[in-house]
Amino acid sequence: MAKIGNIDLGKFPLLLAPMEDVSDPPFRALCKEQGADVVYTEFISSEGLIRDAAKSVMKLDIYDKERPVGIQIFGANLDSMLRTVEIVEKSNPDFIDINYGCPVKKVVSKGAGAGILKDIPLMVKLTEQMVKHTKLPITVKTRLGWDFNSIQIVEVAERLQDVGAKAIAIHGRTRSQMYKGEADWKPIANVKNNQRMYIPVFGNGDVDTPEKAVIMRDKYGLDGAMIGRAAIGNPWFFKEVKHFFKTGEHLSKITIKERVATAKRHVELAISWKGERLGIVETRRHYTNYFKGIPHFKQYRLKMVTADDTATLFSIFEEVLQKFS
Fold first, then answer.
1. Which are the contacts of 46, defined by CB distance < 8 A and separation ≥ 6?
2. Annotated catalytic residue 102
3. Percentage of residues in the chain with pLDDT exceeding 70?
4. 2-247: CATH architecture
């Protein structure tokens, strides 16, 4: 059984990865309903929170129905990160996750995200001080290393555990790989198989079929799978994996009726969270993704991305239901 602090996550939990502009409250709620065991917020800039930047503050919104939920933060300045912990505590998440893995240039150039993989002592010190600064469990998400020549993930994970990290999620690529090539889960298994490791070790990267989740669990022996891109436009992925675990068979294909119902629900949740205009406009990438792979869909997609009120958008959904059912 995997645990973060006192939080029991069950056997081989499925975790929704923190993804910028993706894992907001409406999407997290849908993934939770479809079987995600743990969800994370989008990553939040410590400097943005301290400056009270509206976009950063809004990302602190969490709801009881999505627990256990972790708020993920990033930064490289110790003072800022400690002040951020105090702000985050007020939202009462189940745990705080530190992002040491984001490969994006604007984050890395500040020494944050995967940028900190160039300075392992700072990574360890930040983690240690944050653990001491809060009663909430501190967890970490990172990558294998900065590049192929600097992979020390077994030692790094052990040091993070030794200063109090309660779980570690590892993406099976280096920063220099970005999202190219295949994720390598072997080094993550090496972390798990280190005799000194006792905290959960979650695997991340390329879990895009139920079969791969089984391989991560049975061949590599990890404690859980963190799902990222496979869930975009497909919150049902969690349900599919769990069904496959139980039966060894694939769930029947998601129907148009289910796709339309989920798209509508997503829009409704987004509107109740941030109002009609933003709820519709900022959720476009999601509700169009629900119809990925449907042939001859282009004209409906164009209609959807230009609709800016609920009545128009929902009438397009109805059209889609009539046309493709």
1. 73, 74, 75, 77, 80, 81, 83, 84
2. yes
3. 100
4. Alpha-Beta Barrel (3.20)
Query: Where do the structural domains in the chain lie, given as residue ranges?
Result: 2-247, 256-324
Query: Could you write out the DSSP letters of every residue in 235-257?
Result: TTHHHHHHHHHHHSSPPPPPPHH
Tokens 């390598």 belong to 184
Distance CA 34, CA 114 (A): 30
Whether this model's pTM surpasses 0.85: yes
Instruction: Give the model's confidence band at 252: pLDDT under 50 very low, under 70 low, under 90 confident, else very high.
Output: very high
CA distance 1 to 246: 17
Tokens representing residue 8 in the block: 């029991």
Q: What sign results for the dihedral spanned by CA atoms 295, 34, 28, 222?
A: negative
In single-letter form, the type of residue at position 62 comes to I
C-beta of residue 151 within 8 angstroms of C-beta of residue 176: no
Predicted confidence (pLDDT) per residue in 273-320, tens digit = 999 999 999 899 888 999 998 999 999 999 999 998 999 999 999 999
Cβ burial of 13 (10 Å; 0-12, 13-18, 19+) is buried
**CATH annotation of 256-324:** 1.10.1200
From the list 29, 102, 199, 232, the catalytic residue is 102
The pLDDT, as a whole number, for residue 53 is 84
Q: Sorting pLDDT into bands at 50, 70 and 90, what band is 173?
A: very high
